[in-house]
Amino acid sequence: MSRHAFIYIGILVAAGCADLPVDDSYQRVNSGVMQRSHDQSLIEIARQLDNIQEQVTQIQGQAEDLHYQSQATQDRQRALYVDLDDRLQDLERSISALNSMNVVNEEEIIYGELPVPGGTDEENYQAAFELLKEQNYELASLSFIRFLVAYPGSSLIDNAQYWLSESYYASNQFEQALSQFNKVVNDYPRSRKIPDALLKIGYCNYELGNWDQARLVLTRIQNEYPQSTVAKLAEQRIKVMNSRGL
Questions:
Q1: How many whole angstroms separate alpha carbon 188 and alpha carbon 152?
Q2: Which residues contact 118 (CB under 8 A, 6 or more apart)?
Q3: Following CA atoms 87, 92, 94, 96 in sequence, which dihedral angle do they give, to the nearest 10 degrees?
Q4: Are the C-beta atoms of residues 158 and 184 closer than 8 Å to each other?
Q5: What pLDDT, in 10s, does the model give residues 111-136?
Q6: Is there a smaller number of Cβ atoms within 10 Å at the N or the C end of the chain?
Q7: C-alpha distances in Å from residue 182, one per residue of 135, 164, 176, 206
Q8: CB atoms within 10 A of CB 164
Q9: Using CA atoms, how far apart are residues 196 and 240, in angstroms rounded to an integer?
Q10: What does the pLDDT look like over 172-229, one tens digit per residue?
């Protein structure tokens, strides 16, 4: 057989092989791998979306909690403000009701019987104090004045002087109250009533329009008794003065 015959036969064989059907098993395997990879990617994306959604839900919940807490705080502050305003109005009405009352003038007192004739200083002090609590300011002031005269050496003398001053203050007799509160400070320098007396001195000056003197005394209280209740009250009154440009 010649060389050309071998070449011819080779061409025929090659052509025949080309016409044979190709095995598609490889394509199916490859396609399956690609499909599984695609499905896994979709599952991963879905999982990530779920995580993001869960985080968004948590953030929304936290934001709602913060909003609720903020609203609750505002409501409490509003309630406290309303309560304070009501109390101030009640106090103003009480003071107005006392405007017409006449407190006993010390110079006109005829020193006679004590509230508890023949009683001890403690008994007479308590009797005078009860009159003050009952808002019977005229009789209370009279009783305290008689107490001061009858028991000058009593351990309650400074308290009696303070509550005498208070009986004037409660009746809006601010000039007389100021004079009596000054006696507490000047005559009984070791008294526990000094801080309270100073506060009322500041208040009396405020009511009398003595703004500079009021501010001076109230500032003194803040400096000398910084952690006390009277210091906080002094601070509040100073804020009132500042807000009114006094």
A1: 12
A2: none
A3: -170
A4: yes
A5: 456 788 888 999 999 999 999 999 99
A6: N
A7: 23, 12, 10, 15
A8: 28
A9: 19
A10: 999 999 999 999 999 999 999 999 999 999 999 999 999 999 999 999 999 999 999 9
Return the amino acid letter for 23.
D
Q: Please report the sign of the dihedral spanned by the C-alpha atoms of residue 185, residue 181, residue 243, residue 88.
A: positive
Q: Which fold has domain 116-179?
A: 1.25.40
Q: Which tokens go with 5?
A: 């015959």
Q: Which residue has the tokens 């000054």?
A: 182
pLDDT category of residue 77 using cuts at 50, 70 and 90: low
Residue type, 12: L
Residue count (the chain): 246
Complete DSSP assignment for the chain: --HHHHHHHHHHHHHHHHHSPPP-HHHHHHHHHHHHHHHHHHHHHHHHHHHHHHHHHHHHHHHHHHHHHHHHHHHHHHHHHHHHHHHHHHHHHHHHHHTT--PPPGGG------SSTT--HHHHHHHHHHHHHTT-HHHHHHHHHHHHHH-TT-TTHHHHHHHHHHHHHHTT-HHHHHHHHHHHHHH-TT-TTHHHHHHHHHHHHHHTT-HHHHHHHHHHHHHHSTTSHHHHHHHHHHHHHHHTT-
Quote the tokens at residue 61.
């919940």
Residue 91 and residue 67: Cα distance in Å, rounded?
Answer: 36
